[in-house]
Fold this protein.
Amino acid sequence: MVDDLLSELMAELGVTQDQFIEACEKASANPLHKKIVDQITAVDSFVAFKKLMVKRNTELNEQAIRMLGGGPNSAAQAQMQPTPQLADFARQDSVPKPTPS
């Protein structure tokens, strides 16, 4: 599915696969481009997806603490203390296995 979508995008943009790969490799120089490439990569990799979600949860925790009036120490504590559900999720090394019915 991801391959099909990327192929459609490349065709629409009129770029070859080599040009697209080269652009992705150069993306690290631009924070916005790197974020886009990371998100594309995460679609195809559960570990990369999990890493992005843990990072995003930390950012949201820090933002919530700032909005509630917590100081810098509070933000540092929030970063070190993920929610219990996220902590369980982060400890998993692979995709959760379905439970038998």
Observations:
- The longest helix spans residues 46-67.
- DSSP finds six helices and no strands in the chain.
- Residues 46-90 form one domain.
